[in-house]
Design brief:
This protein has five helices and no strands. It is mainly α and 124 residues long. The protein has one domain. Helix 2 runs antiparallel to helix 3. The longest helix is centred in the middle third of the chain and has 32 residues. It is elongated.
């Protein structure tokens, strides 16, 4: 069961790296939605910071998988190994989520509702 959870978390991703896709689209949308060049630069900088934090998180998770992964030798993995692995994975995810949420609220403060909806259109 733990191996199945590990596989789902690592291969399924749970959407952890999805933000990078919509950030690229948001950067493109910002260029057409915000005409004031100074505001455009501010919003784009905030989006790029979000993208950079997403890349850092992806790298950190990759390093954790390489260094602590119980799947690298599942027959010798102890309960402590699994505990250490999952503790690190959950800590990284929690820190990323908190950082990303803070950045999102900062960005939200830079945009009005119409701009937000145009930069991040709802897709069906």
């Amino acid at each position: 069961m733990l191996l199945a959870l590990y596989t789902i978390f690592v291969l399924g991703g749970g959407g952890s790296f999805g933000p990078m896709v919509y950030i690229d689209e948001a950067i493109d949308n910002t260029k057409t939605v915000i005409v004031d060049k100074d505001r455009q630069k501010e919003v784009t900088a905030a989006l790029k910071e979000m993208k950079q934090r997403s890349k850092e998180y992806a790298s950190d998770v990759g390093d954790t998988i390489k260094n602590l992964s119980p799947a690298s030798n599942p027959h010798e993995a102890t309960a402590e190994d699994l505990e250490a692995f999952w503790d690190e994975m959950f800590e990284q995810n929690a820190q990323f989520s908190n950082d990303f949420l803070d950045m999102r609220f900062e960005l939200l403060g830079q945009l009005d509702r119409e701009e937000w909806e145009a930069i991040f259109p709802v897709q069906d």
